[in-house]
Amino acid sequence: MFFQSGGEDDVSVTDAPNGLSPVAPPATKKRNRRRSIGVVAVLLLAIVALLSQGVFHSLNFFETVDQVLAKRATFGTQTMHLEGVVKPGSIVRTSSGASFYVTGSKGEVFVTSKGTPPQLFQDNIPVVVVGSFTTKTSMNFAGTQIMVKHTASYIAKNPKRVKASNGSVR
Amino acid sequence: MMKQLSQRLFGPLTLVAMGVTLVLGLWVVPPDQVQGELARLVYIHPSVAWVALYVSFGTAAIASALYLWKRTRSDVMDRVANCAMEVSVVFIALTLITGSIWGRPAWGVWWVWDARLTSSAILGVLALGYLALRRANDDVQLRARRSAVFAVLVAINVPIIHFSVQWWKTLHQGATVFNSNRHLLIHGLQAWTLLISFIAFTMLFFWLLRYRYRLEVQRENLAGASVEEALSARRREGAQS
Prior knowledge:
Oligomer: heterodimer
Structural class of chain A: alpha+beta
Shape of chain B: elongated
Shape of chain A: elongated
CATH superfamily of the largest domain in chain A: Nucleic acid-binding proteins
Radius of gyration of chain B: 22 Å
Number of strands of chain A: 7
Distance between the termini of chain B: 54 Å
Order of helices and strands of chain A: HEHHEEEEEE
CATH class of the largest domain in chain A: Mainly Beta
CATH architecture of the largest domain in chain A: Beta Barrel
Number of domains of chain A: 2
Helix content of chain A: 10-25%
Number of helices of chain A: 3
Strand content of chain B: under 5%
Number of strands of chain B: 0
């Protein structure tokens, strides 16, 4: 009674009339292998499911303004993620969202986006806009969602901080 | 004597380090110029991610490699790998949760399928897979060997996560500290608080690992005692019949 292994189907126990006969070891090797393969198979499926959410399509999450301007024709009116820096002074809040320019080093794209922009949306901040160009040759981008891509730099607010001659405040 | 003292002091010191991080991060350090109060999550999320990726998953992978190497093979290594991976699952979950909490107001979304976030989610699945694989094998030696091989193989995902923000274009920010040009992008009190938070969460990991390891030893002893007890009971049954 103490050597049972959980009532698995492939566990063989020798019939023992007096309960003292040697008990055959459970056939665990086969079961272990079967279970391990099962775990690895489920894992592979889960990983493929995660990758298929976006990374399979493209490892890069967005296209920069400069890349889009260089190959404008290839993007046509397909839905894409456009990245650029919000041009200072260009933001106009509208009843349905906001319009603004996103700039790269080689040009800019006019964006009209629906929906409430994120909390950090402001001048000079990098953004990723989901949407598409209005026509195949147009430079007007119709956005459905704005995401802010903040930088890796952190500078504490300190109004008493003295600026260095090179403009640095750190 | 010194060892006992340091073991006793480790828990309270971890608590103090966590407390200092909390006080500095929430009240003392001024808000960030761009992110304002949101930047206070920089004293939690990167430190939790550091422990999840490098410290805990790294400990599990190294202990697994040492188990596979004949000269250092021992039950201790197998146990350390198992316990570290369990703690790692907790820290990976915390990394994803704190990242989402930060992402919603900062980016405007809870989650995106960029290379950094996807590879981090995969790490969580792999860590859970490791634990599932252990439970799929009843044979102790086989379980130790298979799970060790698995841990060493899937550790390849750690450098992929680390370099994902350099190799591909992601919504997730680039590295503030461990970046390619070795240029620290955080300074002054912000940097010191970040450093203290890294130390505090690393200490928390080792504190948790220590107690989890102790629990595992006790569990194994209990299982061993149960077998002994079962054998004795069977012998008694035999003697009576």
